Amino acid sequence: MSAHTETLEKSTAATGIKRTYFFGNKQAEGNASMKNLLGGKGANLAEMTQLGIPVPPGFTITTEVCIEYYQNSKQLPTGLLEDIRRNVARVEAIVGAKFGNADNPLLFSVRSGARVSMPGMMDTILNLGLNDQAVEGLAKRSQNPRFAYDAYRRFIQMFSDVVKGVDHDKFEHILDEQKKKKGVSQDTQLDAQDLKEVIRRYKELYRNALGVDFPQDTETQLLDAICAVFGSWECDRAIKYRRIHEIPESWGTAVNVQAMVFGNLGDTSGTGVAFTRNPSTGEKKFYGEYLINAQGEDVVAGIRTPEPISDLEKDMPEAYAELVSVYERLERHYKDMQDIEFTIQDKKLYMLQTRNGKRTAEAALRIAVELVQEGMIDEKTAVSRVEANALDQLLHPRIDPKAKLQVIAKGLAASPGAAVGRVVFTADEAEAWVKKGEKVVLVRQETSPEDIGGMHVSEGILTARGGMTSHAAVVARGMGTPCVAGCGDVVIDYSKKLFSAKGETIREGEWITLNGSTGELIKGETQLIEAKLSGNFDIFMQWADKFRTLKVRTNADTPEDAQRAREFGAEGIGLCRTEHMFFDPQRIMHMREMILSDSETARRKALDKLLPYQQADFEGIFKAMTGLPVTIRLLDPPLHEFLPQTQEQIRILAQEMGVSVHHLNQKVESLHELNPMLGHRGCRLAITFPEIYEMQVRAIIRAAITIKKQGQDIIPEIMIPLVCSRKEYQIVEANLRRVAEEELVSAKVSIQYQVGTMIEIPRAALVADKIAEHAEFFSFGTNDLTQMTFGFSRDDVAKFLGDYVEQQILEKDPFQSIDQRGVAQLVQMGVERGRSTKPDLKCGVCGEHGGDPASIDFFHRAGLNYVSCSPFRVPIARLASAQAALRNK
Amino acid sequence: MSAHTETLEKSTAATGIKRTYFFGNKQAEGNASMKNLLGGKGANLAEMTQLGIPVPPGFTITTEVCIEYYQNSKQLPTGLLEDIRRNVARVEAIVGAKFGNADNPLLFSVRSGARVSMPGMMDTILNLGLNDQAVEGLAKRSQNPRFAYDAYRRFIQMFSDVVKGVDHDKFEHILDEQKKKKGVSQDTQLDAQDLKEVIRRYKELYRNALGVDFPQDTETQLLDAICAVFGSWECDRAIKYRRIHEIPESWGTAVNVQAMVFGNLGDTSGTGVAFTRNPSTGEKKFYGEYLINAQGEDVVAGIRTPEPISDLEKDMPEAYAELVSVYERLERHYKDMQDIEFTIQDKKLYMLQTRNGKRTAEAALRIAVELVQEGMIDEKTAVSRVEANALDQLLHPRIDPKAKLQVIAKGLAASPGAAVGRVVFTADEAEAWVKKGEKVVLVRQETSPEDIGGMHVSEGILTARGGMTSHAAVVARGMGTPCVAGCGDVVIDYSKKLFSAKGETIREGEWITLNGSTGELIKGETQLIEAKLSGNFDIFMQWADKFRTLKVRTNADTPEDAQRAREFGAEGIGLCRTEHMFFDPQRIMHMREMILSDSETARRKALDKLLPYQQADFEGIFKAMTGLPVTIRLLDPPLHEFLPQTQEQIRILAQEMGVSVHHLNQKVESLHELNPMLGHRGCRLAITFPEIYEMQVRAIIRAAITIKKQGQDIIPEIMIPLVCSRKEYQIVEANLRRVAEEELVSAKVSIQYQVGTMIEIPRAALVADKIAEHAEFFSFGTNDLTQMTFGFSRDDVAKFLGDYVEQQILEKDPFQSIDQRGVAQLVQMGVERGRSTKPDLKCGVCGEHGGDPASIDFFHRAGLNYVSCSPFRVPIARLASAQAALRNK
Question: By CB neighbour count within 10 A (0-12 exposed, 13-18 middle, 19+ buried), where does A634 fall?
């Protein structure tokens, strides 16, 4: 012993690093706050031990050792072996058994444990410490030879598979053969003798596969198992899981080596998992299941059906009473709903794990609110406990988790919620079918502004092309309609009215289901669960609103959207896109006439016809947003987006305009651009054709006058898009103010309005100090800013974005969550330089990022005044803003 | 006098500003160094006065007063009148005449004078100080009534037109009527009596036009004239001139008020202009012309034909001798060729102006070199004297300045020099015609890489679309072929083989001339002057090379271009575009096969066929650049640029590849992008299809090995385009190095090569510190950087760029000269951040800006190591780099 201790002290002294943390017998070297070093499981085992809760003794090898292991070409560091031996000895002393001893063997479990739970992603080895001698000792001591040989059989199988990579199925095959030979169907029907034969064949298999005998030296077993657990940090499924859950590779995993306890020692033993409250609903009721005479993996494997936890009370009343007392203590101690694992060995309860339990959004909300009401946590803590993005679940219908699904393809989760309907392939068909009382899902290559009507009546939208900020995705999110976009496996044949995806063919009229929260395309009609908001939602959101400093506005182009967003708590409109207003069939003709006219006079004539429509649009939106600011962006897209698509449309328009079809075709051709995103659009149109914005401003101010005369307050903010220079802004702004003043003077009404700009071109951020000499507010258009800063066309990026995320060049799709290393620098620069000129400059964001929690955290830190997002993301933005404020205090 | 002085002192004391500078009688308050304050003319008048050269006395009102005038709603500042009166009195004292005096009137000229010469752009008033009384006095004193009345007549006409805006033609009409009445044709044939009648009618016209009498108060005349000169700073032609010559509006003009001297007092008087050396050739010989009995404007007006200056020697030997002595003194004093104006009044010489004379590039070079040889200036001064851009004149043929031109349209001056040839409309026709021995000009809507062959054989290229960095423009500049691009007035009808421009129709085979230095499209065959480089060129360029710190490389894709650039002094290749190599008919098929293959195996098969071609290309280029660095950019454009354009081409390719036409069409369609500039190109291709760059690197390294084995040095630099992140660079680089090492190991050859990156995406500049962790050099791709920083597509920007320059939103086309306020910030940031990681990081630029002197000045200041430009701009870049180094010392 003393020699070991000396070695340990030497090694610790030499490296200055403590690599192992012991726990057992109410004492532990670690505690719950040491998750980064000990992993979640190890930290909580130490904490429970210190609380006096019964935990089998053991020790945790730190995550730092994992990092050392990888840095050191997958070798355990020098000195660790001495640490391990010392800890094993302490466990032996507590348990009263000896590791590797033939008569009274101490067995270990070896488990992974990262900072955050990665359920089932990494490896576990149970029953370690058995060999041909020890199994005999265990059989004698337990007086249960079947148990002992089953434990050895399990250990050989697990060790060979997990540690040595021998195919698991080959062992199952041997077991199956043995059952067949005996004419039984259950593992439990094999007796000790059968299992001895199985063990013989297992060892034979091991030798044949690896050319050496199964290791009889238990220390070798232990060191190999530890290496295997470290190695499983880099297994494919763990890497994928980390990517999905954004867990850094650099964290590493800890390893927990813990004395085995056995739930499979007979009918006075058992094992189970439980939640201190219901993880689906949040109801305050002990919830879980257990199996008598079983080891942990039997519960997970699903071979036997577990019993509800309440039945344990009559099976083993004392153990149950202790379990209840322990879970209540743990919840009070951790002040959150716990997910616990336990084993009962011969009526004695042992706790193997406790952690904060995963839960649905509904449960998260209820638990957070009730914990506050129970006095366990304060409101700030409650607000931090619910993941902002999870609120989406509450606002949209979702697929019944029990439904059997035939997923036939996967696209981008472009607009959340689930939709069921019959397939149609055109927006017109969608409208026609819905008139007949059908529910439809609109399936398109990609959508265009002309499809708005059909999109509006559809239950869901599926596109084969386009990214998270494609037309379909943006519009669908605005409407709250589920959408799967950019589903590349879908090949549409419009002429045959069908699409195929990975071998399945779906025709018009057939039922499909979309899961817009996951991107799944599902064949057939699926049962949905409708969204409902509980009273807890309002209480919770009020708490969130107390803590946030960012205002939350919405992107809305219609009075309906504006109204819905207001109900969700929007504090104004941050982006009202005016271009969507021009696609109505009555209006598009005038719009086209305007675009295709050769003279200013002719353009003004066409614009005069559009003005009353625009004015009516704005009146509706102002009414819906009475008392709140409404930011209206002037015309932004390139003009050719409005142009006729077919020769028939051109023919009609030519007639209307009194020009030749040839002339019109030439004009259409001349408006073609190679890179329209970087083309003649936004305020560039106002430099060449000032009359367009003039009409729009006239409509805005006239609408404001009308509403004001009706006695309502309105705060119009006129926003100039795509500005790249001070002078450009100044020229456009001066013209707009001139028109606005004309209208106000002639109406003899005084209205406060502001004129400001989008910052969406990199250069605008670079010269923001100059632009701020004139602009009254900045709104960061992070969609376009991302496009230009990366040089990514969001319409085309789908072709390589997958590879970029896969190869970890991009952590996330930068159109979904703002690129905090690059694009964010320009936002920060824009804010700082703008305010260097105008210290109280109002700054907001109106890109898609305005509804993304990670982006909102950045916007809070960047000192923006508000974020603006689609109506259905307003609650998420409110919560994310509150969390950002609390996090960055 | 003393009262005036007191007033002056008071006003100067009150404002602290000295507004007027006197000169006369060998004394002057100003000097030649005060051009910013006194304007060029005023400063030089003061200087000449101090030198004791005969200059009529007068005073200069400063440019600051001009600025005050505009800030003060076009009112002269308080106190100025007193200053003027004091100065007038000093002139009176010297001349011995009185301003406004009836018997012995002092007359003034009032002239503009900005910091830099703006010839003819602003206003002048002569003979000021005459009225109905003074004219009589002048007549008596001069004993020349005809002279006096003519002076008065001229004054009324000039004052009315320039100061009061009465139409000049109406006065001419009166003069014509008087001549008709008398039956004469020349103004000089009118006698005093006739002129009195003309004056009567002039005054009548004035009264009718303005409702008041012609001002008889001479101080009113003077103040009005001063205001008119200030006012002319903002006249349309002056604004346009400033825009063209990049003269800031804020400079303002000075006003020179100077005692009149008269060249029109009879045959012992005269006036002339001269250059101290020949401004066309630079020959050291006095050069100019004069008129006997004339005022300055008569020389300019061109009514009489002036005599060569040498004839003055026999007409007026004493005056001529003095003039020679003066001009020699002036040249020695100013140490530069002078452009002088003089008047001889009654045999007495007066100098009215001296300034550095404008000259052709040829003359500039010769004068600079000869002044050094004469010991007048040092080499540094010589290098600063020649405008870098002017060298272009020496390298390209130009249109004979004497030729009569019928300009039928104007486009962008996309590639300098003049070209004459017969019109063809396709690249194939161009090649066919040239084979037949014809000279052709290729006329295209826009060119594409497939047109390379035809472009190469054409004398010049004309396109209807596209900007300064369009394909046609870039390729033409590289080849040194004159090009007029984006000539919007040209409407091409390919089917009829003709184009029209502003009413003119030109058919295939007709002759046209292009002036690629001005953008003019000229009908017919025009006489050209061939380019020739004198020995002075080499001497001069060697001086320039002594002072520059920037290296100058070239953009070259062929051994021929590389060779030419080397002859022009290029110190390596900064950009070798590999994509141009794929358009050869033998190669394009393999390229297409590669792009349209569905599997990596098939792509690799096609790439294997391309490898030998690429290797041969690189071998040729390496040979041409032995001993110098060659930066090769890996494939950059989107793949669909290489795709078949016609169904016929698709059919052939489908056969070749053994796939169906339908399949191939689908594949082509799937590669379509909405914004290809922001699409799947550059190193993004290497992330999805690493095999493409692998082939290219293999070809580069194999070529390097071949050349090395031939005993020649080569320094290959492999450049990865379109990088936006550290990780992206790292992945691509690692793969390239792996392939390169494979080749080197297998060849058992050691070659030093570098791997670096373009910085051409805004994000790359923002994260340059991270990218520099791996990259060995940066090359700023300022073309794409400008596109993305502004959000301007260079292919589409022509639609609104004109308006942007017109409205002064942009000072210049940012694709021609780097945007120093915006884009330059990113370049600066990229350099600084890159070097913060790697202090000796080599940084260069390879965009079009690498050949633009203003941009080069910035690149020098930004600390770049080199610029790279098209071969014909290499001398310009060498000179501009030297000037930047001298300027920013």
Answer: buried
